[in-house]
Write a structure and sequence with these properties.
Helix content: 55-70%
Keywords: Calcium, Magnesium, Metal-binding, Repeat
Radius of gyration: 19 Å
Number of strands: 2
Organism: Pampusana beccarii
GO molecular function: calcium ion binding; magnesium ion binding
Order of helices and strands: HHHEHHHEHHHHHH
InterPro entries: CIBP, EF-hand-dom_pair, EF_Hand_1_Ca_BS, EF_hand_dom
Structural class: mainly alpha
Protein name: CIB1 protein
Strand order of the largest sheet: 1-2
Strand content: under 5%
Distance between the termini: 25 Å
Length: 199
């Protein structure tokens, strides 16, 4: 699909448009409309240096550029979001256009709450071990309350909060929250389904 774009660019055609086949495929694979995909393409292209805009589909945008997006700039989980959606083999959390589309798709209004909760779980799983343990929960709370001294919880407050979270969520009482336990809690929270994160 992206090869068609590269071929058209090589023949001097317009490289600023996404090929029709690619557009159709992206519509099938994401929760995004045709207009949203075209806008995403335009936004992604704008993050690239001019010389790389010829072959947008094979280009990667560094994490530092992705973090300039207004939706991510103030998000306390900005680095985790880039990490979770990046397919970079270098571990630099750069994004391809398809990574970018996946991210926008998950945070779109049309994504299901199961998809949203799956990715939220991955974002909150700071050590990428498949469970939310006490360390993950502590980092999660710190991200939500801010890192400043005036907003930081005392050790006792943090311990009590983590204990409350585990009592509410840790169904099998193993001291961690797995994906199904997380999704169970989220399913009882109607506000979560409305959470958009990135738009």
């Amino acid at each position: 699909t992206c090869e068609a774009e590269a071929a058209r660019a090589a023949m001097g055609g317009s490289a600023s448009l996404l090929p029709r086949e690619a557009l159709r495929e992206y519509q099938e694979l994401t929760f995004l409309s045709k207009q949203e995909i075209l806008l995403a393409y335009k936004r992604f292209s704008a993050l690239l240096p001019k010389e790389e805009r010829v072959d947008v589909c094979s280009a990667r945008v560094p994490e530092s550029q992705i973090l300039t997006l207004p939706e991510l700039r103030a998000n306390p989980f900005q680095h985790r979001i880039c990490h979770v959606f990046s397919t970079s083999e270098d571990g630099d959390d750069s994004m391809s256009f398809e990574d970018f589309l996946d991210m926008l798709s998950v945070f779109s209004d049309s994504a299901t709450s199961d998809i949203k909760s799956h990715y939220a779980f991955r974002i909150f799983d700071f050590d990428d071990d498949g469970t939310l343990d006490r360390k993950d929960l502590e980092k999660l709370v710190n991200c939500l309350t801010g890192q400043g001294e005036e907003s930081q919880l005392s050790n006792a407050e943090m311990e009590q909060l983590i204990q409350n979270i585990l009592e509410e969520s840790d169904i099998d009482k193993d001291g961690t929250i797995n994906l199904s336990e997380f999704q169970h809690v989220v399913s009882r929270s109607p506000d979560f389904a409305r959470y958009r994160g990135v738009r």
